[in-house]
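OP here, attaching both records as promised.
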Amino acid sequence: MNPDPAPCLYNVSTTERCPTPSCVTPSPRARAAATTHSMAPPISADVVVEAAPAPASMAVLNQMVCAGAPAPSITVVSKQLVLPEGAPPVGDLRLSVSDMPMLSCHYIQKGLFFPPAGMPNARLVSSLALSLSRALGVFPALAGRLVTLPDDRIVIRCDDGAAVEFYHAVAPALSLADFLVRDADVPTRLTKDLFPMDRTVSYEGHRRPLTSFQVTVLGDGAVFVGLVANHAVVDGTSFWHFFNTWAGLCRGEPVQPPDFSRNFFGGSTAVLRFSGRDGPAVTFDASAPLRERVINFSAASIRGLKAAANRCRKSNEDDEVKGKLVHDLKVQGGCGEISSFQSMCAHMWRAVTRARLQLAADATTTFRMAVNCRHRLRPKISPVYFGNAIQSVATTATVAELASHDLGWAAARLHATVVAHEDGAIRKAAADWEAAPRCFPLGNPDGAALTMGSSPRFPMYDGNDFGWGRALAVRSGRANKFDGKMSAFPGQAGDGSVDVEVCLAPDTMGRLLCDDEFLQFVSHAPSP
């Protein structure tokens, strides 16, 4: 096995990464196409890769950047172009009415910290690259590009020469403890460099890869595996399906191919037109100051919130003063049990609103969350449908209402919104978009909104063992973050605990972390 290449160090925190002095070619493609539930052989770590010489101009560029750059904390030492192995023909995949609104969003950036792999870096990188090639053979669309057709339809095109970028980075002066700091803000100056394509807008998939990958080895041997994926191509369900597939192939496990049928309003004739070559920009100020913290709710705290929310709502329903609310909830189909997730969201909604002292009592607050439509549509679509099959649902209340009512009242409103979003509501939302196509207005323009992304139901830990142990923590990059953006992750222990990544204006975060009513349900995350 060739040793790791002598690093030409350059700062990966720059907006555009400079090319590396050499480009490693992928292994030859396998002849057999991927099949449903096929058993893949385990990945051998003893794969030899060949380095192709870089153009002279590329080498000169690297020498210039390397000579003047200070020593970075995280350094990319190699880059490979990885092709899908044995990919079956897929053809153009048209973006749906749920995909197109995401063209103005950043690429998704999520990844996992793992314990030391117990193998040399060269073997680790080769193993991950080969299993990535096989995973892309199952998901060939992720190696494609976006193409706008003459009639303005946008499709994912998977050409024979399509490839993705796979980076190997090292951080010899950093350890896991530098990233997972207990009772402290996320060190975003470090985590941002765990991912390529920082703050890339999804429309740029016309010119840039639809996915990119980076494995970073820390000084204590811990490994971070980061995945960046175009948000107009995948939602969270498809994102983690691919991550699971990649890890499973590395272990030699069976794979479940995605469903590429365009049966989520795939027959729509609506198009989204953009003036100029650059396309849309994000709909929020990505440079606004933020504090970011991962807040842990233990399994016991989650159970406590759920019990409190349902107990409070039962009390409210018995109170004749709340008769109109009960009637409204029944009309919306909201009389089932409030879920753990809805209870936790209500707790966050009330607490953050209290911390936003600038809001007037009569200001309207909004809590948005993404709803997976796969099982809600009639007929249902496949649970492994590839693409975005989500819609955003909003619940509103005034500041005064949230302050004067209890947890159960807020949780009941969230519950009613979610249970009402079934087939009819989904079809109406799609029809409304078709009548007026537009990008999704991500952000918090009035300073009174919260947006919950991701889901504690996503298999972030289960199924993502690459062969050397269960992941230790989930972390994300700077993509799609603004005041009020939250993302829910399952707890690492798999016991029902939940981690919530919270991004807030600095003064709001400071007040939230001093709110005793909020903190009574917050736990100290266990040390990794």
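Record two, same layout:
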Amino acid sequence: MGRPPRLLCCLFLALSLAAVARAATRHHEWEISYQFKHSDCVRKLAVTINGQTPGPTIRATQGDTVVVRVKNSLLTENVAIHWHGIRQIGTPWADGTEGVTQCPILPGDVFTYTFVVDRPGTYMYHAHYGMQRSAGLNGLIVVAAAPGAEPFAYDGEHSVLLNDWWHKSTYEQATGLASAPIAWVGEPQALLINGRGRFVNCSAMAAGACNATHPECATQVFAVVPGKTYRFRIASVTSLSALNFEIEGHQMTVVEADGHYVKPFVVKNLNIYSGETYSVLIKADQDPNRNYWLASNVVSRKPGTATGTAILSYYGGRSSPRRPPPTTPPTGPAWNDTMYRFRQSVATVAHPAHVEPPPPRADRTILLLNTQNKIDGRIKWALNNVSFTLPHTPYLVAMKNGLLGAFDQRPPPETYAHQTYDIYAVQKNPNTTTSNGLYRLRFGSVVDVVLQNANMLDANKSETHPWHLHGHDFWVLGYGIGRFDPAVHPATYNLRDPILKNTVAVHPYGWTALRFKADNPGVWAFHCHIEAHFFMGMGIVFEEGVERVGQLPREIMGCGKSNGH
């Protein structure tokens, strides 16, 4: 016998009210200001949130609304904050990308970001104005899943935010990058774990410049109970460095990447690129009477920075929590072992119970060749021989308001001479051009992007590039070393269980193939997450369904041609 209609209606109403009750609104009040900090024991001006760097961790539950009221108290500097990994479905103006989705927040102004965290997982936030991310404006976003929804269990969790740190200001770095000849940013002075590190040459600095006993650079301690299983949420917000992360003596089982569940695999150490997040499980099953190192080491570039360290300490053990372990910190694998890192990338696939199959074929394929080039003697990065520049009027504002002439209406090239280009040689003509044109995608279409790495301006040199897509997750269909052949390699794509990610590495002299659906109305950046590389032109922008975007908040306007709108 069926239930009476009135009973069904009441049941539906009760379920709806329960869902509403579960979704909360999380309010945050942030003031952005410069403060003197000692992140690596050296006194330096840093961009802080409420006086701290890293900023506060945003904690929410899937379906919650996050509201962050940002006051810019930087006296001479604009601000924009990107919520990295949050897709901003229905709120493209809250993506926080200056020049793409909003005008920056001016000194003294207040701007409120409001968005829904629609998916559980580990994410991050950081500045997206100039090279400001390097100055300390960053932090974690942790979105909890419903109880019992995750395909793994653990007794407790810790969060690990990895970063690299320079003593020069971002102004000095940016000026050097734009100079002829270039003044490269160089290797970082320290590697930070949760905002704490140690500059190894502290004693050689001028009196008062470095304080090795300052509490802000005291080694971070992670406490565990013997016999328990812990989830470590690990995020890299580095400006330059690819890192290898290790917890001495403890194997790590990788279970999450960029908010998606991974087919579990065990590693001694984890390669993590700028913009990526992972969750790993460890068992606290080692000798509890000594401490263990957490170690962060540079890979893919010849290291010029000491190992970043923290301490794992067991409750109830005989060792003081802050006592350095009796061993030297692990140095990780060889920095130039590309295939070691390549194999980890290939091993990262979707959890069998959480596979989201990709569409079987693409409607459009874009081949992008990453090259290092020159314009008027200045070194740039380019895609298909076009170096990207941001417009003064944000694309989203310009396109919604019909501001013609705000950016180049000609689309950038979708391919390159892949049949004849030698990716292992220094290109014969390094000259390139600039453009702020974008790729317009048919709404709902399926798009493949193949990123091809190549030799730089110096012979026998190719670097790792972590690429991040705003507003979407993409399926990682395949990796390769050598030149991508569109007539051959698509047959090797993993269409069975590809992982969904928002950031992925392109290995030296290699290619990486992605697929995504252009189903999130808005304008979205896609760029190398190395701060200097994006500053030098390694990025593009996609537009899709912008006519479906609702009325824009007035607060995102006021710059460029939108001044007065």
